[in-house]
Give the backbone structure.
Amino acid sequence: MIRTPLRPLARILDARRRGENPDAIERENLRLRNEQRRDRARARAEGRLLVLALVFFGAFALVGARMGIEAASEPREPRVAASAGAAISAGRADIVDRRGRVLATNLVTHSLYAQPPLMIDPPRAARELAAIFPDLSEETLLRQFTTPGRKFMWLKRRMSPEQIQQVHEIGDPGLLFGPREMRLYPNGRLAAHVLGGASFGREDVRAAEVIGVAGVERAFDAELRDPAAAATPLRLSLDLTVQSAAREVLEGGVRMLNAKGGTAIIMDARTGEIVTLVSLPDFDPNARPLPLAEGDAADSPLFNRAVQGVYELGSVFKAFAVAQALDEGLIDLETPIDTRQPLTWGRFRITDYRHRGNSQPLWEVFVHSSNVGTARIAQQIGAERQREFLEKLGLLAPVPVELSEAPSGRPLVPPNWSELSTMTISYGHGLSSSPLHLAAAYAPLVNGGTRVTPTLVHRPRAEPGPRVISPETSAAMRKLMRGVVTEGTASFAEVAGYAVGGKTGTADKPRAQGRGYEEGKVIATFAGAFPMDDPKYVVVVTLDEPVETSGAEPRRTAGWTAVPVAAEIIRRTAPLLGLRPQIARPAPDAITPVRSSARN
Amino acid sequence: MRGFVYVITALAVIGLAFWAYRETHLTQQSVAEMRSLHREISSLREALDVQRAEWAYLNRPARLRDLVHLNYDELGLMPFSSEQFGEIDQVAYPPPPPVALRRPIEVIGQLHAGEDDG
């Protein structure tokens, strides 16, 4: 920059010549110079302010933009940290049996939805879809696709991979897929009533909730959905092979005996683990049928007879009266009981199926199932004590088993527990309970006298429950139940190698409407345990309206219907349960002569 | 001197910028790789679940029972029953080793000796 001198010589000389003050020139120049300096300083300060303003603007704009982006974007899992994501992403935990075999698992499949505005050729899409899915009609689809204002519609909840491929091949951009987790029950009907079923809860295009609708799926819904526990399967006490064998036998029995239905329960006599729970008719939990809109719920295959079906179970209840009388020391096995026929109480008459004399020892009363004899014993016990005892056995409240249906299996108790009720309840009429109640109540009679709580969860170690009867009474009951099989009404229950014991019950079915009982319609029950010297498992088999028609006239008693089925179930399942048969083998040849000489 | 410092600083900034760029790039590459591995793992896991479900489906007792019935001639499988349990002393001792044939006379002698015992 060229500095202008303050006193330029040319102008000074010029001014002197004209007689002006040369200092004025200097001042003038100084003023100009100061103005220039001021202007420069201002321009620089303004420039700095501008830069500063730009920096601040940029910084605030960045913060603002970032906030806007954060607010508007989809939340997303941090990818780097979620390396253990696989365990979390798996939706619902599996259900396995006691040996880890899969009972319920998940499959990833796809659902199909349509966005009509994106469709290129709705008539063609409708035609092709109707060809792939027989349950969709072309006209309805086309009408839905062409309804103005319709932006979105579900077409299929679940599809097979083949169907997905076929829909892909239609190639319409308006047909879209959403991933779905589907609950799969690979064993089909096998444990339908235990597992229940699952369906979709809240649905979205990208995912859907799977919720349990019945059975353990519903009872354990929260645990199964817990993302932290998704990797550990729920282990049930069921045994798949035993369940399968029991179901096969029971199904054969129900068909052969023309029964409406049946149940089979095998329960661990000490831990209360339910190894098998079959209720027929059953259903496929993969395609759970809809509940009946009208009629009796008990006719639906969804009805779990073993838990929800409360019936008067008949003579199997005699075991409770006898056990209580023995435990309280009122009688012993040889006490003679008055069995004169009929026993009249007011307008009510109690008779036996077959009259066997006017006085029988307790042993025969139980083994030949005398109603009159049991009613006499119940009279000695009295209403209040009988009620307490049955309550201790858990027969007056719903079974606390882990099924969502369990609370609906509430026993039907007489509103007024009179002496007549006491007498009829002693032989199993007047109090309705479910087969599972019976299994839970029979366990203490045979296991040494401690109460068990039925459970469907694998629980190999269980503390013995509170004592219900003394070990001696339990031993006496085992002897009595074994007697029923060796010389009484359940003679068909003899299974080689497994000393089966139990009690039969044949109860007339009450009329659906009105009072009294149906003619020729019975509930046949066998409740027992094996092996009787140290019972491991309690068995209950119930058949609804069975008829055995091999003889001259139809036979309906449990000894001809439920007992053979129960025996076959025990014969098939006991080896599978790992029980070693106790079979008296013929001794080796070398010892035989010694024995025979010793006997002579 | 001052110019030298400027040049060094500028070079350092360029160098650091290049390093930072490279590191970012490498990180992004690793993240992308990890993402694809994750995707592969989850798809494999899914496939494993499908296999497990299929295994359970193919091993369902109803199907095995049908197969046993269909192949009864070949396999002869029966339901497990109590007769199939045995005691250890029911198991036979192994049969005596076969007689070594060296000379016919010796064999006849051995056979006769055996008959005498019986």
